[in-house]
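Re: MGD structure - here you go.
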Amino acid sequence: MTVHPHVRGQSDETASAPGAHKGPLGSSYLRGLTGQLVTEWNADGEEGQGGYGPRTHRPFSHKAYHHPAAGYGAALSVSQVLAKEREPIEGARSIFTMNQTDGGFDCPGCAWPDDPDVSMDICENGIKHVTWEMTPKRTTREFFAKHSVTELESWTDHDLEKVGRLTEPMSYDAESDHYIPITWEDAFAMVGDTLRGLDSPHEATFYTSGRLSNEATFLYQLWAREFGTNNLPDCSNMCHEASGRALTASLGTGKGTADLNDWLQADLLFVMGVNAGSNAPRMLTALAEAERKGTKIVHINPIIEGATNGTIVPHEIDQMMMAKVTRTSSLNLQVRPGGDMALMRGIGKRLVELSENDPEAIDHAFLEEYTHDFEAYRTLVDQTSWEDIEEQSGVSKGQIMQLANLYRESNKTLISWCLGVSQHEHGVDTVREIVNLLMLRGNLGKNGVGPSPVRGHSNVQGNRTCGIDHRPSKDFIEKINNVFGLNAPTEHGLDTVSSIEAMHEGSVKVFVSLGGNFVRAVPDPEYTERAMRKLDLNVQVSTKLNRSHIVHGKKSLILPCLGRSEKDVQASGEQCVSAEDAMSMVHASFGMKKPASPHLLSEMAILGGMARATLPDSTTPFEKYVDNYDEIRDVMAEVLPGFENFNERVRQPAGFRIYQAARELDFSKTPTGRANFSTAELPQVDPGEGKLVLQTMRSHDQWNTTIYSNNDRYRGIKNIRTLVFMNPDDMRARGIQEGDFVSITSTSKLGIMRRLNKYRAFAKDIPQGSAAGYMPEMNVLIGIEDYSTQSEQPLMKSQHVTIELEK
Ligand SMILES: Nc1nc2c(c(=O)[nH]1)N[C@H]1C(S)=C(S)[C@@H](COP(=O)(O)OP(=O)(O)OC[C@H]3O[C@@H](n4cnc5c(=O)[nH]c(N)nc54)[C@H](O)[C@@H]3O)O[C@H]1N2
Ligand SMILES: Nc1nc2c(c(=O)[nH]1)N[C@H]1C(S)=C(S)[C@@H](COP(=O)(O)OP(=O)(O)OC[C@H]3O[C@@H](n4cnc5c(=O)[nH]c(N)nc54)[C@H](O)[C@@H]3O)O[C@H]1N2
Ligand SMILES: [Mo]
């Protein structure tokens, strides 16, 4: 993708007064752009295709993929990745120590729980992920001396990361336009001095990408809160914010209540809005095991994804050799984008209908004893017509009946979901509708049941548990105030979207990023880049070079840290950290490898250094926590519910599960003290005449903003990322043929238009009226003002677009 020559940017005026925070939807600057085309980006036709991946002139192709997921293609791909990074031996050795219950490090690839019964619980994409971290290539001071920052702007994101691991702290030098070496001490002083020079602590914002360990997370939020702000945006503002808010309102917990055993004990599993074969491949093991013992598995997704029909169990090497396929589905429902809520409502309506003659269709005793507002829900389902349900879900009444029967026949149902459910305007309402359905048949608080959001980053759930929250509870703030003698603020801080707006309007001047690639991950890259360039200071704690380093502020620091796989030695000796998986299991992670450079510091040490430089007179013993992580675990045990005896329990072979009241049918944390039904109206998900709903998703060969290659195996794509999948009828209606160039124009909530040109259209079996393509390239189409008013999550799965043939 060519970025700069083709950008037609929004004008640089900022209208809203600093401090007046209404969120981008209330911004008079953005409102003034209504009706205008503000951004236009071209995918590079003649320069080859590839988006943010490697640029190539190799022919692209699109062919149906008929093989089972995780089969031979996966084995081949792993060996190619290892060979490319020249890591066949070290790589293989380290990989065998991943996700072991008796030591080794936690795979940074995803948050799927480790299976204690599986001796080598690894997958293709986890291996790619770790190998990427373990590359022998290095980004040195000589590299930065050779390439100016302006030159690096023209590199693709793939090429930036490919340079290799960062080796020492660097600081942006405006005069020479190069990053130049800086000592750790001077870097910490720059951070401390700049922060102390601000008029208010709220002029800084502290982002986290979900890899940060529990220990570093706790230290990070402590630093921000002692400094005086709750400006703690995180990547979860873009993935499961909706799930957290919905589950809290319904059940009084921000997390799923199911664990891996529940997955294996359920007799009906719903798998909604997740591409498991690519993004949670170890789930395939659970699905295959479940299927073998007769569990029914229902996939709900506009796309029939790779893992949907059959898999070769990722860790069963003998079966892999024999290509023995296990079925992984009983029913596939191709819901229309955003149609999940109507589908859940339809199943609920059918059960209520059945309950007239079938006393066991719904669990009256459970509803009576534990829930609130069932009667209001019953009235609502009576009032919701089948026409509306069919129209909004895109699923026929016949199919909904079929699914309702499966649900009626099951005694233990577990419902899981990921971004296909959460990244919508009505994400909160949809997750609450899922809980409504579970409650109807008492599918809470026993084995084999419950809600189970599939989390993304390997410790995104632990980040929240350990205090990364821009809307902290009063209890939490009181606790840290008591334990540390602080006066931390209680007012809500900025999340991801509002942090960007605040940087753009100049009311946030310092940005600190613990991992991640902010500028690429968030919506509206053009607006965000402009916002970041206004910063007084941009601090990036990272392992590899990425776009967020190149888009610099007046001052910018790159602070390189140890990766999860590397040995972490502090004053008291070798340290371990911990992470929490998607099912509330907390376990230790021990790095094994020699660090990529002798100048790297651990995330704990970097945070401790920055905190001390900011708060020189603080009585918080930052140094003690860094010298020995057991010390911070001891105070975490005092502050965090469920972390009692943290040091002892984290060292148990498989770690420990955090106690969760809702799992025990204790709903005392909700305002009514019961599990609450929600009664929201169904949303209108039809985008209107001529428009399509575009979802932005990951390919098989990428990890969020890290693009390994331009292939997407299970969707049959080779050598191209700048593509859009369309329904064949929608293509025909627009005179578009397979592989044609199209332009895609989005219209935001404020009526602002953004456009991508020279994208290739490919036909796919997806519902009419929908389209799909890859993040992060397509973030150009997502305006900063396009976020849900329920969760403030950007609308990454429901952009309203028009698509036209390019002549
Ligand atoms: N290898 C690899 N693993 C990863 C990641 C990665 O980039 N690479 N990212 C990690 C992160 S941070 C996260 S959050 C997760 C993301 O995991 P996923 O949620 O699988 O991520 P996406 O690729 O965005 O895929 C979204 C899925 O939802 C479906 N979908 C879209 N709209 C709808 C809808 O309206 N209804 C329903 N029912 N389905 C819909 C899409 O067709 C697609 O299958 O994966 C994590 N794991
Ligand atoms: N359009 C669209 N946009 C999306 C999404 C979508 O579905 N559609 N999904 C959203 C979601 S769910 C998420 S989670 C975000 C992802 O957003 P982020 O978490 O911000 O992005 P990542 O690509 O995961 O971050 C990659 C960078 O992390 C750094 N890194 C890697 N390992 C480590 C480590 O151990 N420590 C530190 N300090 N740094 C490390 C490397 O420098 C690397 O360049 O993107 C969001 N953006
Ligand atoms: Mo995520």
